[in-house]
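Not sure how to ask, but would you mind making up any protein sequence you like and the tokens describing how it folds?
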Amino acid sequence: MAKVSKRFKALVANVEKDKFYTIDEAVALAKKNATAKFDESLEIHVKLGVDPRHADQQVRSTIVLPFGTGKTKKVCVLALGDKQAEAKEAGADIVGGEDLVAEIAKGFLDFDAVIATPDIMKAAGRLGKVLGPRNLMPSAKTGSVTFDIAEAVKEVKAGKVEFRVDKSAIIHNAIGKASFSADQLAANVKAILRAIIKARPSTIKGTYIKGVSLTTTMGAGIALDTALAQKEVSEVAE
């Protein structure tokens, strides 16, 4: 059994057992518990009432967080012709065509996001085994396969994140930094929850969101009052 540090025990002690926090309370406590020597990320973990084994219960989409993630993403663009120049002008860090596809196939992965034009996907399709496990494979569903390269690059640079349910029916995402203000973090929490609710599969009839928790990179989990959180999110949307 792994030894639990005194520091982590203290963080756990700060979280009231069996209490379900409001978004504002959870954010404030997460910031208080961010005592590491680096700027920790705030993470959200959402347990869904779906069965990811069924294609019609997959949950996957994107959201441009109001205040970004605090991390500047290195964007790779796969494109042909004039779209390469458009990508560079929009701020893409790595741009190329089929030659870049070949490099990635050989193991080049020095980037955080991949955007591709539809006309290169025949060649890029073979990158599924390399990019898929890293959640980097371009997809029309998430807007990362598009001819509007400039807009797609700008959105990623502005804080666009993809969320997707894993095999355990949980969504895990970093949604900001502990150094952000409490208001900024709360706004990001509400934005991604609203997007997850919007992405609810039509086949789900029972409870969709079963649990939500916040934590920082090195912190302890803080459970949210899911009913209240969903109410807050719906009020913001109105």
